Amino acid sequence: MDQENIMNNSDDVHDIENEGLWDGKEIKRYWSEVSDKNITYKEPFLVKRTNTTSQIAIVGANVCPIESLDYDDPQSQIYAEIFWSLKLKVFKGFFMSGVGESLFNFSCHFFIITLTLKWFQCRYYKAFAAYAGCNVVLAAAAAVLCAFIAPAAAGSGIPEVKAYLNGVDAYSMLAPSTLFVKIFGSILGVSAGFVVGKEGPMVHTGACIANLLGQGGSRKYHLTWTWLRYFKNDRDRRDMITCGAAAGVAAAFRAPVGGVLFALEEAASWWRSALLWRTFFTTAVVAMVLRAFIQYCSTGKCGLFGEGGLIMYDVSSATSTYSGPDILAVIFLGIIGGILGSVYNYFVDKVLRTYSIINERGAVSKILLVIAISLLTSCCSFGLPWLVKCISCPTDLTVSCPTVGESGNYKGFQCPTGYYNDLASLFLNTNDDAIRNLFSTSTKNEFHISSLFIFFGAIYCLGIITYGIAIPAGLFIPVILAGASYGRLVGRLFESISTLDMGLYALLGAASFLGGTMRMTVSLCVILLELTNDLLLLPLVMLVLLISKTVADNFNKGVYDQILKIKGLPYLDAHAEPYMRHLVARDVVSGPLITFSGVEKVGNILHALQTTGHNGFPVIDEPPFSDAPELCGVVLRSHLLVLLKGKNFSKDRVVSGDDVFQRFAAFDFAKAGSGKGIKLDDLDIEEEEMEMYVDLHPITNASPYTVVETMSLAKAAILFRQLGLRHMCVRPPIVGILTRHDFMPEHILGLNPQYNE
Amino acid sequence: MDQENIMNNSDDVHDIENEGLWDGKEIKRYWSEVSDKNITYKEPFLVKRTNTTSQIAIVGANVCPIESLDYDDPQSQIYAEIFWSLKLKVFKGFFMSGVGESLFNFSCHFFIITLTLKWFQCRYYKAFAAYAGCNVVLAAAAAVLCAFIAPAAAGSGIPEVKAYLNGVDAYSMLAPSTLFVKIFGSILGVSAGFVVGKEGPMVHTGACIANLLGQGGSRKYHLTWTWLRYFKNDRDRRDMITCGAAAGVAAAFRAPVGGVLFALEEAASWWRSALLWRTFFTTAVVAMVLRAFIQYCSTGKCGLFGEGGLIMYDVSSATSTYSGPDILAVIFLGIIGGILGSVYNYFVDKVLRTYSIINERGAVSKILLVIAISLLTSCCSFGLPWLVKCISCPTDLTVSCPTVGESGNYKGFQCPTGYYNDLASLFLNTNDDAIRNLFSTSTKNEFHISSLFIFFGAIYCLGIITYGIAIPAGLFIPVILAGASYGRLVGRLFESISTLDMGLYALLGAASFLGGTMRMTVSLCVILLELTNDLLLLPLVMLVLLISKTVADNFNKGVYDQILKIKGLPYLDAHAEPYMRHLVARDVVSGPLITFSGVEKVGNILHALQTTGHNGFPVIDEPPFSDAPELCGVVLRSHLLVLLKGKNFSKDRVVSGDDVFQRFAAFDFAKAGSGKGIKLDDLDIEEEEMEMYVDLHPITNASPYTVVETMSLAKAAILFRQLGLRHMCVRPPIVGILTRHDFMPEHILGLNPQYNE
């Protein structure tokens, strides 16, 4: 049973995995085939042009409290303070996985650089110049990294991780260079004051680290460990990447359970109970390490890192009693939030398509676009606070007002002592602090309605136009910011009938926006719970999420699904489309079919490998090896390459039997890292060998999943998706091979235009 | 395409569902077949005997604060107070489901009867007689309900729900009579002061209500609505039952997110994203309704119902800072908790097997067993508090000490004024209050170490011997009670090195026990979070759960999996056993295969239906209908019955074609409720019709899932399990049909004893 033992690697239960992944080449070929056929579907821009929609991300931001300046006003003192802190924290890389009972280790790094240029005198325009200049420099640095080193690092990264876990392994999506740019690009981008988050990039970072471990380290960068080779199969690699994504969310929101649920609800396409346990382990370790670092940093040793403790935006101090009118207000909040969320998705889609035209012109236009958006963001955050009046400080405060320092609720800006500028408190703060200010409880009148409206409008628009430029950029923070200001705004509008705290309105507004854009339910609910620690508000948060998701689902898809589509990643949905019920498997088979005999001529194999990009070939036994032509199984390209490399050829057309396995070890057939493994060029077949024969039986998967040609396409699609296949044979005995490509709506509707609406 | 349209009900994507369920008869036949073959596996007792492992459940309990009595002590006043409140609250039935975008309604009822016989004078033995007498009467009532009306209502109900969602529809498991007994039996059982919980029964209750809706109401009890017929298919019914189970947990623990996760992690075998959304909707409605009732009841109108608010055991007042030594103590707690949890499982298994011998003797022995356990429980809770010394009340209390009334931290019992009996505070309280007392924070020395030890020992043993008697009985409460007292005990032992609050130790102890017995992770974590509202302790709770689950997994399986096995429910595991890799599909095919021709004689069909219990038959086309014998498809028993009932017979062996569908509507083939649908006896075939022919093609599923006979059994098992099949054909063209039965380890190891360890 040697054959069976070796085939166990690719066969049996592992079949699911080994057949699962599509790489970048296949994706491009697929789209070029679609366009060759002159099918007029909306093609993704990123395939036609380059594989990079580019985008940005913020951690801290630039703070500039300026207290009364030379203003043609003789009695005012002339001084300006410019203070900005670059809070560079992102790299919390964690990885973890386990196979069987082995538990693996974990790492968490972070670094925070606080750079302060403080108390130097200047005028407003100098302050602006310094502020905008720093932003532009940081933004340009992020864009340069992204444009020249790893274009794949632009954007959120969550759609890419989602695609990988669905079985699409696009080129350099999880490469070490992407990891590097994702970390540093995100630090620079967030520091540059863009309206972007660090959450998506952290999910991508976690997945990249997991991938690095999953393919046995990186030989190119001399990061290899021998024990990692046990993960060298698709299943473990996929599990690791799921754990990495969970760890990313867990670290970004300090929400370990939320991380597990995010991985379950949004990231993973296939779920097993063992995976639940592994992600839970990963996030538990993240929680312990975060907790230790927060304790270590609680004395202020690490800049802004320790702030907020494990609960980032605590609102538990607010009284969470609510009654009929409050619920009415909350339902209104949910409905409008859902509509605004779907409108947000619509514009993100449009902007991404526009930007991809700009980005394809080359690295320089990418960088110029980033600089332009950076200048616009600086103008907004520095200019808009001038529009509002100064508000006198409340008298019953425990904190100083106006605040002097890097963060705080009451920014002085241009106002005299005893007054503060509420819009400056939101704009000229880190994004985290702005959210904390919006979520702050018992501060009903802190923000004027007009200020909230201006802030909401600005962040909503900036969020839309920022996603898509060539920097790593998360979507959570912009959505939470816009949602929280929207929620507070609604709270102010309903203040006559509702007694709910404004901080809770902000939380509910954020929930409604998140539900409206991302369309998650349980994971968002738990993440918000872990962010704010208000268990009593849970029923309302659930209600808002349900309403906004339901409303938004009537208009378009979730933002990550939209981005997946724009990027041209062939994502396989869990359910079959209705029209698939009227088609059968035969209807989507597209030719020509290339098959091998059980004992095939080396030349034929080499020719097939050279002329096609197919990953699997059916093997057919013909007389004299069988009575009638019958399907023997499917052979994989990678296994064929190993076999040809081994040169176990024979002059005659005979079955060689199992002795071929004395030449190969099971490990020779193990899955190689992406971009590794034997290439066609590595083969050195001589002319006389071309006429020799090689027995394919030992490396043939003798029991591929097959369907009968008259099977309903919907049923075949469910089988394909549930088992995570890469090839599926159509009987009798072999009519064709179905791949992911054949289940894409573009392909099916192209062949059967009658179902096209 | 009429045929296809009709077949779409059973075919296409719905195939998964329609083929999924095994009923009670099949299970019994399976086990009798296994025993016929003289295979010496541990057979479940419940199949050999009756289908009832019987067990008990508690909500409130009996409270008896007695303050100083005649005790040969002349100066003490002679009086006794007996007070007991029967807190009968269980029936919170909620159900909910949605198909597509339709959202459905929900109901939540509860009732609480508080019965107080207060301040009547007697001596201790009278008090005990009254206490034990009431308990026995209530217990006997529960046992009578259970033994005579619905034996299937005994026990937790979670294993049954789990089995249903895995595809096993045992007889009367979710019947209306079971629902009735589950509700009232649980109320009576909990009131009788047994060490049982209401959580499991509430999950079962939710599932029963969902099932009632899913099969279109109950015609027998005149509860039918026409709109319910849209749920009359397996997929929707299964979704509804998942939602019902989630609602049960959500209501029992007031933990909506925990309910969703419980349904996901423990209950459901197949998961889809649509299901996540539906369960989330269900539990959101449960949360809103619970919140409304709690607000309505906050003035004490509803007995004990409103107590604790949405957070049942709030520990958030404790300071959750911890350091190295605390973590060491917690690791110790987790390891020992895991060991104790697996020992608990071991004994529950043994006790269940012993009880099933007693229970099979008939209803009377069931009731006597319940009465015996009830007396033992009364003796323990009334007798053990005498063993401990009175403790003087702390001086810095905000509550009265000793407490007078139904619940409270400080029970007087036999102690003089100013003193309290700590063990009585635990025993003579409702289970909910006992847990609340154990979780109470800043009460370090309230319970003496010896009291905790006695309580822990008593509850541990009582919990083990109570599960299995003929009353509805949940396992959560006994495990939490034992775990919390164990945790507090460990806290006291470590008090010299650890500064963690005793209430938090109790929480961590409960987590370790839950992890050790139930082996869940994320759902327990979230349920505990929602029960106690201590987000800062989350990292430690995760750590404890991980450790205790890992430790316990080395010894045995989770308690629900064990009960499933004892009950003989053929649960299909998600992963294939290792020895299955060495077998192929052909190796497990058993029995004479019964096939039909495409156009078959009525007599043959009737004979096959009468002599076998098979649910599906392969249909084979032979000459003259095809060139060679080939598999045409699979026909279901229920569809055959409908066809025979329709009497569309012909004298000659000809294909009738699609005109048969002019006689039938698609709805005729819809899945009937359990126990309904056409029976074999309903057919009235005359003698001359027996020789006539009927065309099976129109009702044949022409594209059943097939595997080649040489496919690895592990691979076939994964296919069968992932798609939730009921039949799977083995080619070429038909070697046999594989069913759930053929993938059971008992069957496989019986045919292939060489893999038997």
UniProtKB/TrEMBL annotation, chains A, B:
Chief location category = membrane
Question: How is this protein positioned relative to the membrane?
Answer: Multi-pass membrane protein
Q: Which Pfam families match?
A: Voltage_CLC
Q: Which GO terms describe its cellular component?
A: chloride channel complex; plant-type vacuole membrane
Keyword Transmembrane helix listed: yes
Q: Which GO terms describe its molecular function?
A: voltage-gated chloride channel activity
Q: Which UniProt keywords apply?
A: CBS domain, Chloride, Chloride channel, Ion channel, Ion transport, Membrane, Repeat, Transmembrane, Transmembrane helix, Transport, Voltage-gated channel
Q: Which InterPro entries match?
A: CBS_dom_sf, Cl-channel/antiporter, Cl-channel_core, Cl_channel_pln, ClC
Highest taxon of the lineage? Eukaryota
The regions listed as transmembrane in this protein's record are 94-117, 129-154, 174-196, 240-263, 275-294, 327-347, 367-388, 447-469, 503-529
Subcellular location as annotated: Membrane
Q: Which family does it belong to?
A: Belongs to the chloride channel (TC 2.A.49) family.
Q: What is this protein called?
A: Chloride channel protein
